[in-house]
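Example: Expansin-like CBD domain-containing protein.
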Amino acid sequence: MASSSSSFLLAAVALAALFAVGSCGNELTLTIGKDSSSTKLSLITNIAISEVSVKPKGATDFSDDLKESPANTFTFDSKEPIKGPISFRFAAKAGGYRVVDDVIPADFKAVQFTRPANKSE
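Written out as structure tokens, the predicted fold is:
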């Protein structure tokens, strides 16, 4: 049973997809920082993006923009435990926003993944 669970996790991570940041076609990789916890979500990006916000499960709207420190590391702090799945939004260089719904799973842990942007606002 543990083997099939591990295989499922590997398959889920292996099913990574790409999405374009603006029109430049760069691949954006999100890494959940090792300092993340039930009340803190640290997201590290491999390229410069701006106006990053998240929407945990049950929230009616996206958070205020996350603070960036150090460069390409965005932190979301909450007084309550953060519930997933979590949607991710950022400003694209070509204008508008890119939204990736439920990109961060409910049981998020420090893991690297890429996901497709599925709509623009």
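Residues 68 and 74 are 5 Å apart (CA to CA).
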